[in-house]
Amino acid sequence: MTEKTQPDLARREFLSQGAKAAAGLTLAPGVMLYGVAEAKPADQAVTSKVRWGMLIDTTKCASGCNACVQACNEENGLGNEKKSRAEQVPQYIRKVELREKATGRVVSMPMMCQHCENPPCADVCPTGASFKRADGVVLVDRHICIGCRYCMMACPYKARSLVHEALEDQKANNPRGKGCVEACNLCIPRVDEGGQPACVEACAAEGHKAMIFGDLNDPKSEIAQRVAKYATTQVRADLGLNPGVRYQGI
Amino acid sequence: MNHLKKLLQMVPAVVALTLSAPALAGVPVPDVPQAVKGEQCVEPIDDMRRNHMKYLQHHRDDTMHRGIRTKQHSLKECLECHVPAQQPNKGSQGSEQHFCQSCHTYAGVRIDCFECHATLPEKSALFHPLVTPAMKAAKQVHTPDSATLLNRLAGNLPNGTEN
């Protein structure tokens, strides 16, 4: 029996500081004040005035760091699949490493549902379970999903997974079960209450700040100003899907 | 005429049989747990008994597709009030004690809400699934019961109460 050790409080302090910085509350002198997104009233429907998006700066994303993936699994209660094979276990977000053959330059970046403006998953869905919400978030309505997996085949980003077994102890914020397809939902219960996705918070808490989340339609938001100023890339832009997730430095 | 008399004589017996049918069948009336908080439900009780599924389904579509997250008809909020989160003795007795399940078992209505949705309110320290050990035995599944394991880990069950 090992002795119970005191939790590392210094680290906790550091983490909470990181979270505050991510929310845009601490401002260094000379840093531009960005608009902080306000939560919409709970009884009002989302509108297309907002387009949620994410900007991932791959130059800040550390190779070998898995904080975003762990935060996602924790937030959404993933990892309680006991019988699924490794290739069946659902992943909402995964780390990908790209290597440019000619130069040997390696880029590390997280890949998840890209929240397309024209989502192919929603196009092929026979029941209407895959759909795009008015504010640009692509979701699966598990109440209507029949688990046919057409969307998994249609998605060029390999973003979706099927739950292969009956589950227990799900998170209240992310009901999930056997026979339904699922993917990153941009932590929509958090976002609807004015919060940030778990991966973005975790990345900031690690001190990388490689992920920025916000409203692409709001010219005052940090993400809109960054994409207006710097060259950013959509993965497989040739498909014309206009993803809401953009990358810098690839 | 004799026939009619005989029939009439049988009526009280038939009525008595019909009335006592539930008792004979041995279906116990469910012991629905008291709400944990609050004095009043979100709608009048008789309305909720008849129409709760309509409220839930309407709210479900509003939340899923339009992002409306009011609390009045939310399933999460049902659990917050009706499922004892901090009463290990009530919760650990398994699914029959669950507010939703106790009544649906009695009514013979199979609900699939809890194949995906959490069975306990969020802040709870206690875990108990709606798949009971008895159901597992019937399906001949021999996996360790996650609820028992987690409850033991969390120290919610005194020794000897787990199955």
Return Rg of chain A in Å. Answer: 19 Å
Q: Which regions of chain B have little confidence, pLDDT < 50, spanning 5+ residues?
A: 88-94, 124-144, 157-163
Secondary structural class of chain A: alpha+beta
Count of alpha/pi helices of chain B: 9
Strand percentage of chain B lies at under 5%
**How many extended strands of chain A?**
9
How much of the sequence lies in strands of chain A comes to: 15-25%
Taking the sheet with the most strands of chain A, its summary is: 3 strands, mixed
Mean pLDDT of chain A: 88
Count all strands of chain B and give the number.
Answer: 0
Order of helices and strands of chain A: HEHEEHEEHEEHHEHE
Question: In one word, what is the shape of chain A?
Answer: globular
Largest beta sheet: strand ordering of chain A: 8-1-9
**Could you give the distance between the termini of chain B?**
63 Å
